[in-house]
Write a structure and sequence with these properties.
The complex is a heterodimer of chains A (291) and B (340). With 291 residues, chain A is mainly alpha-helical. Chain A has one domain (2-123, 132-279): ABC transporter involved in vitamin B12 uptake, BtuC, CATH 1.10.3470. In chain A, 76% of the residues lie in helices and 2% in strands. Chain A has eleven helices and two strands. Chain A has a two-stranded antiparallel sheet with strand order 1-2. In chain A, a hairpin with a 2-residue loop joins strand 1 and strand 2. In chain A, helix 3 (61-89) crosses helix 8. Chain A is globular, with a radius of gyration of 19 Å. In chain A, 53% of the residues are buried. Chain B is an all-alpha fold. Chain B has two domains: 2-234, no CATH class; 236-310, no CATH class. The chains are: A mainly alpha (291), B mainly alpha (340). At the A-B interface, helix 3, helix 4, helix 9 and helix 11 of A face helix 4, helix 11 and helix 13 of B.
Chain lengths: 291, 340
């Protein structure tokens, strides 16, 4: 019983990381209407930039994390502007765009391998004292990860409901042509969306590396399909759905790790993905025209 | 002299195997528009099952694996092909059964499937010897023939060439058959094909299955030729190399697939294998090569999406005239707008 409660607590931590990443994927999908298969590499970039700032340049870890996330966001904008936008503007087929993002993923993964090698890396943070909150046991870092996850979700909620940019993003997600004729500057909104998506990916990468206590260049790519499982579960293109999906996938995978075996965590996420696609591909919170 | 012959024969064998692989992906994507991002996993399935059916019972050696049937050569290949085909049907069944599901989902499910298979095969050592992989697969028929390595490579090349040519002919036959026309109609617009009464689910499942059988055969030949396979030789990067070969060569065109295979796998992969390693960066050349292939693919899709050898435009049957339209009936391949 104790073990299961504990893994529930750890599930909440994983869910916080997943929520950051899944909301990033789904926001970008909603606005641009295609999936980015290079998203896993964005997580890796965030973690490594933070590591360079933190370990090589001795910047405070949290500052380094913020820097890493922002630079990842800028990188995402650059990729969208210089690589993907020409395809979108020419009206390339959806299939081609998806292949291009997969190609980007391969290119980035190999660039990282050249830049950073294949060794395991760790952030320069002191070992932490474990403490218990009721029946659950956490490290301070895990509490911070959850706080960041919840904070980011609240910020996204505020962005979508109360800012002009967020309203424009929702409008583009619902109907691109209608948003355009209503005077939404779709290019600008697309740039901002990629920036936010990249920042969330970078932050998620740092948090994932922090919670796993180590990382290597392929760790983002290996996490990608768990992110996709959360996105599909919640409903592709639905930020609130992605949060819900992340919560479910995070808790379910960690609890299954306690009940079954930790090697099967990924398989449980995969099972959820397949079952969802078979019985309800539009997700828990469906959005029109995205399934 | 003998060494050069031996080397060229080895390259030719690899070309045949990769070309079978590209032909299969061409049937899936080039003909039918199925986005299979785990294509190399089906090669692995074929390779592992061909391997464990050729190996003797496990136990005497330090390897762990299932089956161990000591089957003779063509049977092992057939088993690999059947298993790969069945796996293709299983994966296809989950996504293609809903004919109007967007292709993003196909990509997502196949990526997830590839990752899961990689993890499972690596972690479950009793299946196929885990991360170490299978090795010591007996050379097919060599117990009967007893050839020296050089002559044997030439013999194996003959086998590969025959199998590749047969599969190439089959792929061409499919292209020009009513089935192939339906496949291409589905590629251009699945809704229209469904409106005309085509069973799009069945045809896409068939394309998925045939493509995976091709991959399984290629995998079987590969493992019988090299003698082993490990999880690290079938990651997403390898899938991507097959994609690059098909797209750079010319999607929907089998000659293009062969040109792409020659360029990407033989020139890029094998040609760069003998460059001297950069001191201190043992992985540099392999990584730079993958980057170059990725860039080449994106540039091809951007500026010349039909590839080096473009697919021929379909002609209307003789005597048929489009009502009032001077345009050929299917100039659809350059259809603008985001399709499924």
């Amino acid at each position: 019983m104790h073990l299961i409660l504990n893994s529930f607590g750890f599930g909440l931590v994983t869910a916080s990381v997943l929520a950051l990443a899944a909301v990033g994927v789904t926001l970008q999908f909603g606005v641009t209407n295609y999936v980015n298969f290079a998203y896993g590499e964005f997580l890796t970039v965030g973690a490594y930039l933070t590591w360079m700032l933190n370990v090589q340049l001795h910047v405070n870890f949290w500052l380094a994390a913020a820097g890493g996330a922002i630079v990842t966001g800028l990188g995402a904008v650059a990729i969208s502007e210089f690589v993907l936008k020409p395809f979108v503007r020419r009206g390339a087929r959806l299939l081609f765009l998806l292949i291009v993002t997969l190609g980007l993923s391969l290119i980035l993964a190999n660039v990282f391998q050249i830049l950073w090698g294949t060794d395991f890396r760790k952030f320069a943070i002191a070992n932490q004292q474990v403490f218990s909150a009721g029946p659950l046991i956490f490290t301070p870092n895990q509490i911070i990860i959850m706080a960041i996850g919840i904070g980011a979700m609240l910020a996204i909620h505020w962005l979508l409901k109360h800012t002009k940019l967020g309203k424009a993003m929702r409008a583009m997600s619902d109907n691109l042509s209608l948003a355009r004729v209503s005077g939404v500057d779709t290019d600008r909104v697309t740039r901002w969306t990629w920036f936010i998506s990249g920042c969330l990916a970078g932050l998620a990468g740092v948090m994932l590396a922090l919670s796993a206590e180590g990382f290597q260049p392929s760790f983002g790519e290996q996490f990608l399909f768990v992110i996709f499982a959360s996105v599909v579960l919640g409903g592709v293109g639905q930020p609130y759905g992605a949060m819900l999906g992340a919560l479910i996938i995070g808790v379910v995978t960690e609890m299954s790790a306690a009940v079954l075996s930790s090697a099967l965590k990924g398989d449980v996420a995969f099972l959820v993905l397949i079952v969802m696609i078979l019985i309800r591909p539009q997700g828990l919170i469906p959005s029109q025209g995205k399934a | 002299m003998n060494d050069i012959v031996y080397y060229m024969a080895t390259l030719a064998v690899l070309f045949c195997i990769y070309n079978i692989l590209t032909l299969g992906l061409n049937i899936q994507f080039g003909y039918t528009g199925i986005l299979d991002f785990a294509y190399i996993t089906f090669l692995a399935a074929g390779a592992y099952f061909a391997g464990v059916s050729a190996l003797p019972r496990a136990g005497g050696t330090d390897q762990e694996y299932i089956l161990g049937l000591s089957w003779p050569f063509p049977l092992t290949l057939a088993l690999g092909a059947v298993v790969a085909g069945l796996l293709g049907v299983a994966v296809g069944g989950t996504i293609l059964s809903r004919w109007n599901l967007r292709s993003d989902y196909l990509g997502i499910v196949t990526v997830a499937f590839g990752t899961i298979c990689y993890d499972l095969v690596g972690n479950l050592t009793p299946l196929f010897n885990g991360w170490f992989g299978l090795r010591g697969i007996p050379q097919p028929l060599n117990r009967l023939l007893n050839l020296n390595p050089n002559t044997y490579t030439l013999f194996f090349l003959g086998v590969c060439v025959v199998i590749m040519l047969v599969l190439w002919l089959v792929a061409n036959r499919i292209y020009h058959s009513p089935l192939g026309r339906t496949m291409r109609a589905i590629r251009e617009d699945v809704d229209v094909a469904a409106t005309f009464g085509k069973d799009t689910v069945k045809v896409r499942m068939l394309a998925m299955c045939i493509g995976c059988v091709y991959a399984g055969i290629a995998g079987g030949l590969l493992i019988e030729f090299i003698g082993g396979i490990a999880p690290d030789s079938w990651t997403t990067a390898e899938t991507f190399i097959v994609w690059a070969a098909m797209i750079i060569g010319g999607q929907g065109n089998n000659l293009g697939a062969a040109v792409g295979t020659l360029l990407v796998t033989v020139v890029f992969i094998e040609g760069t294998r003998f460059l001297p390693p950069v001191p201190g960066h043992p992985l540099l050349i392999a990584a730079a090569r993958n980057i170059a292939i990725g860039v080449l693919l994106i540039v091809t899709l951007r500026f010349h999406p039909q590839g080096l050898v473009p697919e021929r435009r379909a002609r209307a049957p003789r005597g048929w005239q489009a009502p009032g339209a001077p345009m050929p009936a299917s100039s659809l391949s350059n259809n603008p707008g985001v399709g499924r």
